[in-house]
Amino acid sequence: MNYESSFGGDTITARSEDLYGSEGEVETRSRRRNTIIAAIVALAVLIAAGVYFFGGKPETAAGEGAQAGAGTTDSQAPAVTVIVPGSGAVERVINATGTLAARREMPIGIAGEGGQVVRVLVQPGDWVRTGEVLAVIDQDVQAQQARSLAAQIEVSQADAVLAQNELDRALQLVGRGFISKADVDRRRATRDAAVARVEVARAQLREAQARNGRLSIRAPESGLVLERNVEPGQVVGAGSGVLFRMAAGGEMELRAQMGEADLAALSVGVRADVRPVGSDRTFNGRVWQVAPIINETSRQGIARIALGYDKALRPGGFASAAVISGSSQAPVLPESAVLSDDKGSYVYIVGKDNKVERRDVTTGTVTSRGIAIASGITGKERVVLYAGGFLNPGETVRPQMQGGKRS
């Protein structure tokens, strides 16, 4: 369609397509507008019908809309896994360190007059029996003295036999009147003195043999040789000090250093697990003695833990011990649930309205099941199990019990 108009004598001609577009585009926009208007009308009709049939009011509709908004917010809250730990028996463990040593250590030195060492018969690590010879000392001079004393016994015995024969003859002659009773008494005294000299000679020989026996260094009791401090050719005597050191029966112990509070909670007979430094083995032992005194400087005492013999237990070595001093009831949490900061250890609790609360706790023994909680929770709370470090107190969460069930 063309239009013509005149203005100031000039004629202006314009096509309607240039002003409003093509007829197809006009029709498309019109249909789109009509569709939107129809949808709005239909939605208004549905709302009005709902209000009519269900007796709704504008205020009710507004409340439902708010609840829908709240549901949307709850669905957007972070999901967390929680656990209700309960309360169970937890063994109280006292950790300590100390030095390994022989339970009954026997230092062995010279018991006699000493001399030059001829032979040493044992090495550290050897087992010996009671009375077994450990080292031999030269006994040549002492042996000759013993032979002399043995010969002296024979001389004394001969004198005693002669005195007895003379006494017998005197007794035969006294009845005939050839010898007086005084002579008989003198011969009897001579016989008795000769017999006494025999006993003296025998005692002197036994004394010499005992001294010679003490020259050989012997084990006072069966056990394990720990140290050897003597070599052949060495001259030893009463002032030579300790030549051998033994562990009676091969029994060992750990002398564990403990504080006053731990010693007070300890009793004789409780079990202990001992692990020497550098070893992956654990040895079972028992506390057999608790120190009756406390060191004034370190404020510590010693608990002695008895151990059986094993090559891995070397006296003088360092070891750690876990002493089981009793048991108590306490909640146990996995390590992932227990957090810590400058204020100490804490956990996150999911309280009312699923809001996160911080709860300060005191940790106890670390067990194979987790960390025992000495105080702070009762075990009936819902404790956040994972990712507690990403939460903040007061934050709303969606708790889920461990195993996938929602709390």
TrEMBL record:
Residues 114-241 form the CzcB-like barrel-sandwich hybrid domain. Residues 332-397 form the YknX-like C-terminal permuted SH3-like domain. One of its GO terms (cellular component) is efflux pump complex. The chain crosses the membrane at residues 36-55. Residues 191-218 form a coiled coil. It comes from the Bacteria. Keywords: Coiled coil, Membrane, Transmembrane, Transmembrane helix. GO terms for molecular function: efflux transmembrane transporter activity. Pfam families: Beta-barrel_RND_2 (PF25954), BSH_CzcB (PF25973), YknX_C (PF25989). Residues 255-323 form the CusB-like beta-barrel domain. InterPro entries: Beta-barrel_RND_2, BSH_CzcB-like, RND_pump_MFP, YknX-like_C. The keyword Transmembrane applies. PANTHER family: HLYD FAMILY OF SECRETION PROTEINS, MULTIDRUG RESISTANCE PROTEIN MDTA. Belongs to the membrane fusion protein (MFP) (TC 8.A.1) family. This is RND family efflux transporter MFP subunit.
